[in-house]
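Tutorial handout. Part one gives the primary structure; part two gives the three-dimensional structure as tokens.
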Amino acid sequence: MRRLTRWAARLYPRAWRHRYGAEFDALLEDIAPSWRDACDVAGRALGTALHLRSAVVIAVATHAMALSFIILASSAYVAPISWNAPAAPLPPPAPAPPAEITDPRVFRDVSLVYSSLPLRTGNGDALFTDVVAGVGIYFPPLPDIGTIDRRRNPIRRVWPGQGLEPNITRRVLPKYPLGTREREAVSVFLEYLVGTDGSVRVLRTSGPTMFANAARSAVERWQYQPVKFENGIIEVVSRVEVRFDAELLPSGP
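Part two.
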């Protein structure tokens, strides 16, 4: 019980223990402390500690009340931030690049001029175009127009490129391949396939390799809406002539 009483006495402040600790230990050696004595020592120690710290507790409580008052006052008198304030206007969009059109001088006997899409602006704005000099496109008549191959899945049909114009959504115009020595007009013929997803794949070409490659790289970037026939989506085979005329270039290639 003496050990328990000594432990309870450690709850007293350090200044008290330095001053009365030796006398308290001597007193414990002379008496036989009971449970009541140990509890009494512990209770007095706790009361003394709380009494010495009361000034700190009062100071903390006073500061907390002052801060609470300031927060309540600011929330009542300071205008809240408006999160619905109008946003700063965005910068104007960059102007669209001019549409490209084929050179109408290449096929003088054909009045049609083909372009990259779209050509029309919906709000009547001015239309700006760049001419791809020395390059023309022509969809020739097909001797086997309308031929259907039902052995394939999906069905494949031969149809003129002019008839597919309502379905086209993107057309890239070929560019004259620079670095060539050709001085006369060169025609390249391409047979291409429009798949069920509207993409284009060139099946065959005829003509000088450099010009054929320039035409192929452009035609294979065309895109169509899927072609419907007999309540289904089909593949379509068509042909196009691309003519390159060096005499119509602004300067020699």
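Part three, for discussion. Residues 99-248 form one domain. The chain has four helices and eleven strands.
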